[in-house]
Design goal:
InterPro entries: AdhesinB (IPR006129), Bact_metal-bind_prot9 (IPR050492), Lipoprotein_PsaA-like (IPR006128), ZnuA-like (IPR006127). By secondary structure, this protein is an alpha/beta fold. The chain has one domain (5-149): Nitrogenase molybdenum iron protein domain (Rossmann fold), CATH 3.40.50.1980. The chain is 48% helix and 15% strand. The chain contains 6 helices and 4 strands, in the order ααβαβαβαβα. It has helices spanning 8-24, 26-34, 51-56, 75-88, 102-111, 134-149, and strands spanning 42-47, 60-65, 92-96, 114-119. The strands form 2 sheets. A two-stranded parallel ribbon has the order 1-2. α3 (51-56) links the parallel β1 (42-47) and β2. α2 (26-34) packs parallel to α6. The longest helix has 17 residues, at 8-24.
Amino acid sequence: MQHDPANAETYNRNAKAYAAKISALDAPLRERLSRIPAAQRWLVTSEGAFSYLAKDYQLKEVYLWPINADEQGSPQQVRRVIDAVRANRIPVVFSESTISDKPARQVAKETGRKYGGVLYVDSLSTQGGPVPTYIDLLNVTVQTIAKGFDQ
């Protein structure tokens, strides 16, 4: 606003409206997750890219590999997550949009758990795709997680 003080009011109004849209996504997810027994509130993903989201929603997190790992979906990584899913009776497994869903689907299949779908973390789609804006990315990811936990 330092460079365009004449439009400061417009910028502030738009920022508040955008923040309100983001906040509106929060309540439905919190309400749905509150129905899941605390011991089963785990976010299982392929890549450890959702730590902030997991922390914000009091989810424990388990993932096949850390962000930008050299190994992705090794037998050891898959086995570790399978063991964690079984031990903690975790009901659902997710994958990310930018990588193969095969390791996450393998974990779901071998544990008899639900594959919850694709989460979006760091890339938007084209205008005609599922997440052309950041608000769409948040909405689709939140709805996918909530739906994945529906029993």
